[in-house]
Amino acid sequence: MADPSLHADGAPRGNARHFIVLLALLQGLMLYIASYGSQAGWWPFALLGGRVTWYTLVLTVPTVMLLSVVRLGDSRFWQQAAGLAGVFAALAAWAAWAATGQPPVDSEAVLLPFGWTVALGAFIATPYLQARLAEGRWCAPYPRLFQDAWQNTLTLLLAGVFVGLSWSLLTLWAALFNLVGVAFFEELFKSRPFAYLASGLLFGLGVLIGRTQHRAVFTARSVLFALFKGLLPVLSLVAVMFLLTLPFTGLAELWTGEGRGFRRTGVAFVMALLVAHQVLFLNAVHQDGTQAMPYPRWLRALVLAATAALPVFALLGLWAVGLRIGQYGWTPDRFWALLALAVLLLYAAGYGLAIGLRRGGWLRHLPRINVTVSLVILALVVLGNSPVLDPHRLSAGSQLARLQAMPADALNRSDIDALRFDYGRHGLRALQALRAHAGAAGAADTLTQIDSALARQSRRHFTPAYRERGQALSADRLRQPPNASAAIPAGLVPAIQQHRQLVDACALAPQDCWVLALDLNFDGADEQLVCALTSPSYVRCWAFHREDGAWVPLATLSWFVDQDLEAVERSVRQGTLRVQRPEWGEVVPEGASGVVVRPGEQ
After folding, report:
1. pLDDT tens across 141-152, in order?
2. Closest by alpha carbon to 349, among 307, 378, 380?
3. Which stretch of DSSP H or E encloses residue 266?
4. Eight-class DSSP state of 503
5. Of 338, 533, 330, 536, residue with least CA distance to 419
6. Are residues 586 and 594 in contact, defined by beta-carbon separation less than 8 angstroms?
7. Does the pTM of the predicted model rise above 0.70?
């Protein structure tokens, strides 16, 4: 393992140490100004675009500067800060434009992925900026990039722990004086100016400690790497065992296995986690490219086999996301999932190719692969948050094409709400185009739903007329299977009309809701199960039981597994659901997995 003296030239010097603390304090002050200004209606904080740009710049640029400053007189340091500010300001302006519209959209649906991808990009870019300051060139030797990346990680973690511990001390301070009737400290510590400025100051002190106490950070990293060293063979064994199991279960079991609880996107998530963990653990053990595998030959063979199999897992994840996209179209989540899996496939393919070449030892190729993929990630972060690969524009266009290919009177509220709120300005444009399509097709009910969605100011805002219309429709859309032995109880309909989720699921979508009488707890009296078949990705039923002469909600049952859905829907429509013990039964459709009734889960 490299000696911590390697980074003696990366420590802040002279006034740079004071600069770290003062810049962090200024960062806290700028965050407080934004918070106060947005409440007071100051420009530019009164505008979403102003807030997005301000927060993006304040949270990213100073943090990168805190981690990379060595000498204040280095002109390259200030050039890099200005360049970062320009790039992040441009990306923030595009995100703010996409997250606004008239009527208002759900800005968080656009800004949350923007925030975490920009943070990831800034984190990956920082070692290259540090390398330029230390080496005079962007791509320094891999050991330096590796050391800087882990130094930054542990420094940020240390700063976070330091802030948390300091605030616990301040809380104790205030509580002690409260015991004797002195409330001054509690009022001071709870005041917003103090909270912002103190948090900034403490964060700066934490970063300074992390950047100057190299030996302590080096020791912490050694302990962490020792954990990775012990876990890598276990992870490799799990991966190899799973791979050897697939020929016996078949790939179809990934999508159709009973009781699994995962949708295809869940399969993709698990595969991505497996590849990401193997890549992380392998690099932590291999470290800066100078370390050999510290295992006996048979364990090295196990790690080698698991690493060679990584492309299989990455391709399975890509396949799962591709199936989802082919069935239901693009969404921003699927866009980023596909990019993440594509990046992991690059890692996996690169490592697999290195193993295949085996020239001079396959491990020596890992640094070049890691650097190449990190640059690809930076490019994708920029392109994915720019007009070039805007996921919200792509998703809105994909969903519009999918919905226009369906019968206009078959659209449900979840599809309409997704366009209205989840895709920003592009979703609004797509919804207006869908309205024109529904109007040309004469789908009056769909037009009403679209107009109601456009009139709402938020996803959870419903006008009284909208709610009354839903309550009226709920009674008309209740259906029973052909084998029902009794009519729908009269008192159940008012209970359904007062249940907001049921009104949303049944009344405000074109599909009917089905009512089935089932004895869920084997007491000889039937409960009522109301099932909505309105979503392409799940089936949800609400159970009601009689209490003091009235029907009241009991529990919610949901099926999420793709292969189960057709069987569940068929059982609901035909009335072939059955209940099997324990005390509160498990509702089991024919040909699908069951869901246990758990009273109170609503």
Report:
1. 888 899 999 999
2. 307
3. helix 264-286
4. I
5. 330
6. yes
7. yes
